[in-house]
Amino acid sequence: MAVAADATAPVAHLRRKVSRPMVLAAILLVWLVLFAALRGRQTMTLAAADLTGLHRWLNDVNDTIGANRDSNPLFLYFFNEIRLVIDNLVTFIQSLISQPTDGRPVPQIGWLGVVGLTGYVSWAVGNWRVALLAVAGFTFLGLQGLWQESMDTLALTLSAVFVALLIGIPLGVWAGLSDRFNRIMTPFLDFMQTMPTFVYLAPLTLFFLIGGASATITTVIYAAPPAIRITAHAIRSVPQTTAEAADSLGTTRTQQLLKVLLPLSKRTVVMGINQTIMAALAMVTIAALIDAPGLGKTVVQALQSLDVGTAFNAGLAIVVMAIVLDRVTTAAAARDEAARRSGDRFLKWRRPLLAAGGVAAAVLVYLSHTYIWAAEFPGEGSTGSNIASAADTATTWMQDHLSGLTNAFRDAITNGLLNPFQTLLTDSPWWLVAAALVGLGAVLGGWRAGVTAAVCVGLLVGTGLWSDSMTTLASTVVATVLVMLLGVAFGVWMGRSALVDRVIRPTLDAAQVMPPFVYLVPFLALFGATRFTAIVAAVVYAAPVAIKIIADGVRNVPETTVEAASSAGCNTWQIITKVQLPMARSALTLATNQGLIYVLSMVVVGGLVGAGALGYDVVAGFSQGELYGKGLAAGLAIVLLGVMFDRITQAAARRTRA
Asked: What is the pLDDT of residue 345?
């Protein structure tokens, strides 16, 4: 027995000695050595106009579906019916607020009625400050000369939110009440939220064609998961003792739900509605790629023609609408608590005032329905023209005076980091990169993550877009590294200082409200139409969520631990690097996970401004019929990259916590 113990001791010692960083370093070293020997061989490069057998088959499927759309029973009685219902809903809301109908030159409710209704609803569900913000915000949309485009965007958003909540809240309640259903739903919700926004577009146009209906259906799929998740969380967060007390009083399951669970979880459910609205607005703007009307189409057309002024004006309108919708729903969630704090001073006047406000709103709606001056927004949108002109002037000035600095920064990142890494990925033999990715996944996340990486890599090869996938992977990784550098720097600063957190966090919250398209505009002005523009926009888009996660992780390090390190003579740098960051490793891993997913989504959107690779393939698939199959395959490749990233980083986070 002693001999056996002595024999196993060196093995155990070796296992302890071979750490995870050493294995990672070994994998990278072998990769670099083989890259130097085999560079340029078996890279599976595919030209922009070339198609594989899969792409041609997908084109044939698209043609076959188009030819049989009006005769196939599945389309006649299922897909076409869904499309008809959604299309009627969208058309109805557009006829109310954005598009002429029934022989009228204007919608049923003109600008004055919309502004009045917006102010009244904002006041009814929130407070007078939010109502003023909403009125000012919607009036500003008209002054920008973008009233109809804004109302089209609002109509699509409201349509999608209505359907998403109609589906999402009942499913969320079910998931909150049933552990089994919650376990069934969770993988589907994970998958839906992992997929970048671009990916929803191509397959749905196959079944629902392009236009407002498919844009709304796409938005519903993207916006429903927050409603389901948050509603389920709200139901599960109700104290068990409260539910037991209701049981003891003899309430039925339905009474308990309607009288206890939903009222107690109302505030959280309203926050879920807020997240659904924000997700819907973001997706509606991107759905302009499949001919959805509204502000998104204006931004896309301006980006494609490199018209920074027009893109900035429309992007600003999207931001204004997002801020108004966010503040209204946030105020609605907090209204009951605010009323309790204010006591009974204004409660007795609230109902009479609301009644008077309702009458005033009804009068404004009538005027806007009856008179052209109250239906069509007055003026020529000179404010928007001035904003666009100022943006063009600022762009010209920056290009004339800052081009040296911006170009130097762009070239430093591109030549020093992006190009070498992209060359390593695209010029290595495909099987070498595949083996390295599987090995890295297994080491970082365990054998299950390694298996997931192997499956995703195999399917990536099958898409025929290996080289484009590696180009997108390079941009995503570089952007994520930059996100984490910003995340650690600002996250530690915020985590260590409550004052800094109070100052910076509102800015981060506001940044997360803005739809992805908006981030492209200023960086298009600074850096031109290049892949670096997409990378910088992705960094700015993803950094807020990473910073907040890291800040919370650093703040949650026990104060006693920090004080002990300080009393032991550690300086600030040592406390950060030796205590706080190591103890916040799970937060760092989670921030990396979220940063990767956000970056991947934005890098693909950057296909509109020269990012190329998979983003370009998807955009080209919408605009060029012969490339539809390739665009569909590119969407699948994006999903595979997202799933691989998500599973590896989530598994790594679990291992870190363990």
From this structure: 55
